[in-house]
């Protein structure tokens, strides 16, 4: 199985000089195509920082971070952009635009893809919303949806561009047990169908069962790679 995320000896600090705060310490981990990896660990252990580096959203300078065969350490903006285009992101807060319907929120992700007509974008987005069980809610605004439904819209939005990797940061934090589990189960099913790799950061021990592998980060180090 091909490796899509290959991190070797990654270290990262915030601040500089006397105020330097080491956050990630010599992290090594490889993640394969289609694998679902959950990263847990205490608050402040560096999980979000790690995710943003993998996602090309933060620049790191020490070690090696190969994502989809691109080196992100000391990389150019162009390389980060090309990696970001192949990644779907899901955040704790769904980050949907309130004035747009579920369908519009999903289809706007495809606007960069000039190869599709607007009609194709809408059809493709509707199909993805049906896949997450929201076929009856295409034209609802975020405020007219439950928290679990909103998070399912953001799952559809993350997957609609057929990314190679999905990065999720505490996607169930604002959900109750049942809707949280439902949302990540849908995410898992769709990811397995399309061999999408998932790296999901969570405090939520109730969803650990969806993982192929659980990795624990403590004080910037991986306990069980
Ligand atoms: N932009 C920043 N500038 C300075 N320090 C930061 C910044 N972002 C995070 N930190 C610090 O880095 C450490 C790791 O933060 P990070 O958000 O990665 O942890 P986390 O494991 O995701 O925590 P949580 O589970 O609470 O979200 C924390 O001590 C935090 O205060």
UniProtKB/TrEMBL annotation:
Keyword ATP-binding tagged: yes
Keywords assigned by UniProt, alphabetized: ATP-binding, Cell membrane, Membrane, Nucleotide-binding, Transport
InterPro entries, sorted: AAA+_ATPase, ABC_heterocyst_DevA, ABC_transporter-like_ATP-bd, ABC_transporter-like_CS, ABC_transpr_LolD-like, MacB-like_ATP-bd, P-loop_NTPase
CDD domains given in the database record: ABC_MJ0796_LolCDE_FtsE
Sample GO molecular function, one term: ATP hydrolysis activity
Coiled coil regions, renumbered to chain: none
Stretches assigned to the ABC transporter domain: 5-225
Pfam families registered for this protein in UniProt: ABC_tran
SUPFAM superfamilies: P-loop containing nucleoside triphosphate hydrolases (SSF52540)
Gene Ontology CC annotation, any one: plasma membrane
Name under which the protein is recorded: Putative ABC transport system ATP-binding protein
Species, as recorded: Nitrosomonas nitrosa
